[in-house]
Amino acid sequence: MQVGSLLQQLDPSHLTVPHRSLPPSSALLERGEAHESAAGPCFEKAEIQRQRKKGGLLCDLFLEPDNHHLNSRSPVHGWGYFLDCMESERSKRMGNACIPLKRIAYFLCLLSALLLTEGKKPAKPKCPAVCTCTKDNALCENARSIPRTVPPDVTSLLFTSNSFDVISDDAFIGLPHLEYLFIENNNIKSISRHTFRGLKSLIHLSLANNNLQTLPKDIFKGLDSLTNVDLRGNSFNCDCKLKWLVEWLGHTNATVEDIYCEGPPEYKKRKINSLSSKDFDCIITEFAKSQDLPYQSLSIDTFSYLNDEYVVIAQPFTGKCIFLEWDHVEKTFRNYDNITGTSTVVCKPIVIETQLYVIVAQLFGGSHIYKRDSFANKFIKIQDIEILKIRKPNDIETFKIENNWYFVVADSSKAGFTTIYKWNGNGFYSHQSLHAWYRDTDVEYLEIVRTPQTLRTPHLILSSSSQRPVIYQWNKATQLFTNQTDIPNMEDVYAVKHFSVKGDVYICLTRFIGDSKVMKWGGSSFQDIQRIPSRGSMVFQPLQINNYQYAILGSDYSFTQVFNWDSEKATFVKFQELNVQAPRSFTHVSINKRNFLFASSFKGNTQIYKHVIVDLSA
């Protein structure tokens, strides 16, 4: 900044001071009452007081100790500028004679500050004690950490044989001209994501011969000038945390020397440069606890009605069917309505055209069919289910064959009949009784292809505590199910549930004592695929969420086990445990692109889990 320009701004007319109001400074000098300082002549305060007593106007500039204005390095250390203008009664007649001196004082203060600012130059950083520095280069050895006082003008920096093993964020901040960085032959185990932040001029980076097993994602972000990277001599573990490096190697323009995996075993000694992102399976899923419902339950079903999704839960002890809807504001499930009954075990919804019906199975008081009355906005009972056939219902399955709706009730009493009911336009009537006296505990509807046929045909599988699971096939001519065969060597099966993978049909068979099984349909019979220990299990439920196939095995004596389908091995692999007391059913509910798992509990709270997808490479 030019000082002369400031002088030009000063008004010369203000420099004229009335002599009759000012005592000559030479007189003061003759009396020895003025003194010299580094900034010029100054009056003592005593003289100022004497002038006031004489009358008139006294305006002058003097210096006093003032440590608040200048720092210790100032050439006028400890002094500040002050202007003391005092006036008596006589000064009132003199006008504003003090104003020019005020302006001079302000100008001198500003001028001094500018001179001091221009005169201060930062001290040139010295070379750290652990480094050897030249004009452009620095070599650091036996350092315990990255020094912070490396000269900012260096273009090449080398660290070798040092004792630190971690490099933190912004370790090289303040080195804008650095082009070559060598961190070689150390014992570096960890580098932070922003270690090299700010090194926009960096051309060559070497991390060779250290002990790195991984590198944080985006560690090279912002290094726009980088043309060569050397990562050789490290023990890289080629897992999902290093997937980003494989992707980066595929699109970077920098030259990267060949590097190799040290783990896991299947990738040992493989060249990282030759891997692709397809070699890494980094997407995993889990069920995370989302909500607790403070009541016990047996069966849980979901259904769509009037463009909304609902959940209905059977409560055996309160005898209610509780209907839940999704709260789009609170992002939770809330009560929608209920049907009150007695010892309710199943609440099965069925939507025919636009009308909602609910089949309520009860252990006492008979079972009934309800209709949703949209005008009254409530459920109305429209039909009783014949009590002579359905004495102790345990499961209900709904299905549609050739545009006709059916439901089947599995009866577990000694005198009951598992019975199929058909919709006739006004209600449901008994269509077929499958068999009596077998104490059926579960019924499953599925469609399979029987060799040499090519079309899928409807089938029912009945599970019973008194015989092996029985397979029934639909006869199109008679419009009835006929007994075909059973599943050999599978006594005491409590329930059978099916699922499909790539067109193949599988079933999960639940056993309370012994091993539960996974079996595959082979064209004429089911064949063993997998055995899973399942003491105390009453539910082995397969379910599909998006592209993920699961099977969930509940137990009265241990944690619930969640299995994921391994497509290569064609078996289930355990990957998670859930703490559910005495589970009886697991149901997938999908709402607003969110997926939930409802877990019923006969002894504890009903639980809701959220299906979460986790990317391990993120």
Automatic annotation (TrEMBL):
GO cellular component terms, A-Z: cytoplasm; extracellular space; synapse
Subcellular location: Cytoplasm; Secreted; Synapse
SUPFAM superfamilies, alphabetized: L domain-like
Family annotation (Gene3D superfamilies): Ribonuclease Inhibitor
Family annotation (InterPro entries): Cys-rich_flank_reg_C, EAR, EPTP, Leu-rich_rpt, Leu-rich_rpt_typical-subtyp, LGI_related, LRR_dom_sf
Entry keyword set: Cytoplasm, Glycoprotein, Leucine-rich repeat, Repeat, Secreted, Signal, Synapse
Residue ranges of every copy of the LRRCT domain listed in the record: 234-283
Stretch forming the signal peptide: none
Database matches in Pfam families: EPTP, LRR_8
EAR repeat ranges, renumbered to this chain: 286-328, 332-374, 378-425, 427-476, 480-523, 525-567, 571-613
Domain of life, source organism: Eukaryota
SMART domains: LRR_TYP, LRRCT
PANTHER family named in the record: LEUCINE-RICH GLIOMA-INACTIVATED PROTEIN 1 (PTHR24367:SF17), LEUCINE-RICH REPEAT-CONTAINING PROTEIN (PTHR24367)
Protein name (Swiss-Prot/TrEMBL): Leucine-rich glioma-inactivated protein 1
Organism: Sapajus apella
